[in-house]
Amino acid sequence: MEFDRVQAIASLSFDKETIPEEFIWPEKEQPATTTFDGRVPEIPTIDLNDPNPENLVRLIADASKEWGIFQVVNHGIPSDLIAKLQDVGKKFFELPQEEKEVYAKPHDSKSIEGYGSKLQNNPQVKKSWVDHLFHIIWPPSSINYQFWPNNPPSYREVNEEYAKYMREVTDKLFTALSLGLGLEGHALKEGAGGEEIEYMLKINYYPPCPRPDLTLGVAAHTDLSALTILVPNEVPGLQIFKDGNWFEAKYIPNALIIHIGDQIEILSNGKYKAVLHRTTVAKDKARMSWPVFLEPPGELVVGPLPHLIKKDNPPKFKAKKFEDYMYCKLNRLPQ
């Protein structure tokens, strides 16, 4: 087993009150409880089936400008399908380690698809308390079933059905975000790749951790995607940075958590904000989440949309191929 390639933290053995040094983050980056005077702000929750289209556009645009993240309810994805998605993902991570390793990301792969525990190529960065599985669920021409688990047997059927519903939600979000900028409804989707946008599913598995105060599930970052649409389980842990403080996302059963990613921030020339977020872990429970990253095709050049550029609003970002943007981001190189 190639532990330089992937190391499953769930299988590590150590004293119940300690964790290995490589997982202990610098003190200033460790999770800390923040106290507030007054009521703790909550991430906006939006009814995606709002009968007033103008109100829906306004709510989504305001949340994307102020927070960069919001939750949606009444989104049209059946609750039993979400439960099945969570069930098959959980069963995969409960498999013996050698079975999960069958789907490991190849050592020389340029893609992030596959099972593993490390994403960024930087040995100086502390390890995160997480295992993950990446694979594309749409479009069919981009799917590589090599990374889709055969066990549990219903895994493929559930994920293919989820992808169909996910496309409907995505179109509604892109349309509202475009209208919120005063653009045609198709503008942002087309700017991010149109029908060639890749839907990259990631399953995050954060095992119970004896010292959750010392480590992180995922370090603070913005997503390099256009949008991220996430299903969590009931264990809290997603935190959002806003106004100098970290806020925990409230768990709402069957809600989807929508992150504005880097590419939407670029396309909107900074009107919409990519959300800075991180993940904490729990002592006695496993946390899981199912984000879908909506990513432009690698060769697509992404830059601020021309309709938003004016004399008093010059471009704030360079236009560049998405694959080059991703390479710089994952290798911590300047954009």
Provide structural commentary.
This protein has 335 residues and is α+β, with helices and mostly antiparallel strands. The protein has one domain: B-lactam Antibiotic, Isopenicillin N Synthase, Chain (Jelly Rolls), CATH 2.60.120.330. It is built from seven helices and 14 strands. The strands form three sheets. It has an eight-stranded mixed sheet. A hairpin with a 2-residue loop joins β8 and β9. α1 crosses α4 and α2 crosses α4. It is globular, with a radius of gyration of 19 Å. The two termini are 35 Å apart. GO terms for molecular function: flavonol synthase activity; L-ascorbic acid binding; metal ion binding. This is Fe2OG dioxygenase domain-containing protein. InterPro entries: DIOX_N (IPR026992), IPNS-like_FE2OG_OXY (IPR044861), IPNS-like_sf (IPR027443), Iron_ascorbate_oxido_reductase (IPR050231), Oxoglu/Fe-dep_dioxygenase_dom (IPR005123).
Write the layout of secondary structure elements.
Elements: E1 45-47, H1 53-66, E2 69-73, H2 79-93, H3 97-101, E3 114-116, E4 131-138, H4 155-179, H5 187-191, E5 198-206, E6 218-221, E7 227-232, E8 238-242, E9 245-248, E10 256-260, H6 262-267, E11 277-279, E12 287-295, E13 301-302, E14 320-321, H7 322-330
Parallel strand pairs: 1-2
Antiparallel strand pairs: 2-10, 3-4, 4-5, 5-12, 6-11, 7-10, 7-12, 8-9, 8-11, 13-14
Helix pairs in contact: 1-4, 2-4
